[in-house]
Amino acid sequence: MNRPTVSERCFDFGNLLVLTLLMIVTIYPLIYVAFASVSDAGQLMAFSGLLWKPLGFSLDAYAGVFANPMILKGYANTFFVVTVGLVFNIGLTSLGAYALSRKGLKYRKPIMLLIVFTMFFSGGLIPFYLVVKGVGLANTLWALIIPQAINTFNLILMKTAFESIPDALEESAKMDGANDLVILYRIVLPLSMPVVAVMLLYYGVSHWNSWFHALIFLQDRSMYPLQLVLREILLQGEASSMAVGASDTDAVLLSVTLKYATIIVATVPILLVYPFLQKYFVKGALIGAIKG
Predict the structure, then answer these.
(1) Where is the ABC transmembrane type-1 domain (predicted)?
(2) Number of other residues whose CB lies within 10 A of the CB of residue 272
């Protein structure tokens, strides 16, 4: 085995240094928010600079977050949108991808051109709003699910992955009397689980972080998803209103740590999902990208 040369060692050291710095820059904001959320509000307000440990220890901010009924309601609405949305997303995307991956489909190339066209051009926000309102979805959680049922990029990614499956499997299944739905759900999808995991992650994160469509289509505050509740707290002074029964000074102090606790409450659940999908993520993304 050849020993690495000096230039190779320098290159490896440079890569390690750059990646380490990138990791620190990426992780530190999360560490800061986590430490700030459990810090004493008075000490945190007086502190300036980098935060490497909690300043004191207090869970008052988390108590204040969960004292707001809109947080739990926002969680419930977001879980509904994510769960039902993923069913629509995976079901419709897989149907479209399977149809477009079949070589015998008539007008496949013109259809693909029309689909790709939507990635670069759209009707605009006002026509989009008028269409959603015209079909009766405005001020319902379905306005956050149905219009985003299929993402063009994800459709192309899944279509490319389906095309990598050998045609012999489909032919043998048809000889046994299987129709296209049986082939899709019993052969193609089980063999494409890495890509399905990628789709679950892409669509799930998109639903979890979505707030703009909720801001446009929802007027009833009881339907607000978690991210819109978070936005309301951070931008419209809801943090101070959570400190019910406290003095004005205490309310101001609590609002300092409350925003950090709210961020943690909103982001931790989706972060916990990623490790379970990580082993499929790279493989699934590559399968959908290397075959044209």
Answers:
(1) 75-265
(2) 9
- Give this prediction's pTM: 0.77
Residue 240 neighbours by CB distance under 10 Å: 14
**Tokens in use for 40?**
């004493």
Tell me which CATH code domain 59-290 carries.
Answer: 1.10.3720.10
Cβ pair 71, 65 in contact under 8 A:
yes
Split the chain (292 residues) into runs of 10 and give each run's mean pLDDT: 76 90 88 85 77 82 78 89 94 91 85 88 87 91 91 89 83 82 86 86 88 89 87 61 50 69 82 72 52 45
